[in-house]
Amino acid sequence: MTKRIRAREKDTILQSLRAGVVPNIGLQHIQVGRSSEVEALLNDIERVKDDGAFIRFIIGEYGSGKTFFLHLIRTISHQKGLVTIHGDLSPDRRLQASGGQARSLYSELIKNMSTKTSPNGGAIKNVVEKFIGKLLSESSDDNSVDDLIHSTLTPIRDMVGGYDFVEVIKCYWEGHDTGNEELKSDAIRWLRAEYSTKTDAKNALGVRTIINDDNFYDQIKLLARFVKVAGYQGLIVGIDEMVNLYKLHSTIARNNNYEQILRILNDCLQGNVEGFGFLMNGTPEFLMDSRKGLYSYDALQTRLSQNSFAEKEGLKDFSGPIIKLDNLQPEDIYVLLVNIRNVFASYDENKYLISDEGIKSFMHHCQNKIGASYFQTPRNTIKEFVHLLSTLEQNKDVSWEMLIDKIDIKEDVESVLEGDEETEADDDLSSFSL
Q1: C-alpha to C-alpha distance for 288 and 5, rounded to whole angstroms
Q2: What average pLDDT is seen over the chain?
Q3: Would you say 37 and 323 are in contact if contact means Cβ atoms under 8 Å apart?
Q4: For the domain 36-123+216-321, what is the CATH code?
Q5: What is the pLDDT of residue 29?
Q6: Residue 79 — very low, low, confident or very high, per pLDDT cuts 50/70/90?
Q7: Band of the pLDDT at 308, cuts 50, 70, 90?
Q8: In the predicted model, is pLDDT for residue 69 greater than 80?
């Protein structure tokens, strides 16, 4: 059967690859390799659907495909009926903080909430509406929606912060029932952590708490339970750019964040939570650096130590929390470039802009320019290949043979990100004085 691709998917894929970022849709058209890793995550997803939990640290060098892998798992999760939320850490977004950075991360996660029918984010309202619709279909003269909300959400009410969470959902139902759009909007604002003061939340919704730095993780647990009762199979949380914690100048701030990670890790491994999974992307330094990485925190190093038998023999073991992304092989890159060519031509062989021989010549040129990096961290390789195809498409009288040697490809190196500038910074020697 001939493959097909929608114009929207094609445009999104090519625009994203041209910019060096991962497309939000259409990943199945360009996915290569990682079969063992994907299988391990599929098992994790099934665990979540069965009211279990998991946490995975996706470890790979800069440009090795961690973000692509995270987006791929999101796409699979949507197909399996799960809700996903995802976001990047940055200097103003963290797992634990006292200056609003954790609340900022939560807002980013909720903004990016996605489902199968809303893959591009903004799905929080749809999730709440699905819950209300479910209760409306189950209501009767003997069981009103108010009664059903009370009975259905009782387990959530008993959780930390659950009382006000349930009250906000009740406010949304009241706005839905009475046609009060402002009340519905206020409820969604609360769920998105957009209230900065308790006074504003109390005036709008009658609740005494807001989502802030102190209850970031507790609110995710509430959200995971809620999407389950709303009719979804579970919640997947994806956090990228974990290396930003490693780059914090403040040892105190860094350790506080590592303590939050330890809390999440313990809950997932000990079965204290249900219905959600965490994916955290980071570099090998973020994991193994004994001075600033996760291994600098003794409790995390103990729990994240890898299988020595598999490590010594060069074998794979996906039973632990760590998944190391192996470098793609040249054969994988060849298949990837073929897939991109297929997307560019909408799977029409008559519209191919470059032959198989041309792809091999392009790879050979890349290897001569930057060595093995062209397949170990293939981001720039992909960008230049898309640029090559764009040039060929717009200049019909030019052949790929004329352009290959003129491609100036550079090794993909990690950019220097801003670190933390908190006043309590006390890293090595910072308190030393003469």
Answers
A1: 41
A2: 87
A3: yes
A4: 3.40.50
A5: 87
A6: very high
A7: low
A8: yes
Residue-wise pLDDT for 196-241, tens only, equals 999 999 999 999 999 999 999 999 999 999 999 999 999 999 999 9
In the chain, what percentage of residues exceed pLDDT 70? 89
Q: What is the 3-state secondary structure (H, E, C) of the chain?
A: CCCCCCHHHHHHHHHHHHHCCCCCCCHHHCCCCCHHHHHHHHHHHHHHHCCCEEEEEEECCCCCCHHHHHHHHHHHHHHCCCEEEEEECECCECCCCCCCHHHHHHHHHHHCCECCCCCCCCCHHHHHHHHHHHHHHHCCCCCCHHHHHHHHCHHHHCCCCHHHHHHHHHHHHHHHHHCCHHHHHHHHHHHCCCCCCHHHHHHHHCCCCCCCHHHHHHHHHHHHHHHHHCCCCCEEEEEECCHHHHCCCCHHHHHHHHHHHHHHHHHHHHCCCCCEEEEEEECHHHHHCCCCCHHHCHHHHHHHCCCHHHHHHCCCCCCCCEEECCCCCHHHHHHHHHHHHHHHCCCCHHHCCCCHHHHHHHHHHHHHHHCCHHHHCCHHHHHHHHHHHHHHHHCCCCCHHHHHHHCCCCCCCCCCCCCCCCCCCCCCCCCCCC
Please write the tens of the pLDDT for every residue from 397-425: 888 888 877 776 665 555 433 444 443 44
Listed by start position, the domains of the chain span 1-33+328-409, 36-123+216-321, 125-205
**End-to-end CA, the chain:** 76
Quote the pLDDT of residue 313: 58
Q: Which of 283, 240, 326 is nearest to 35 (CA)?
A: 326
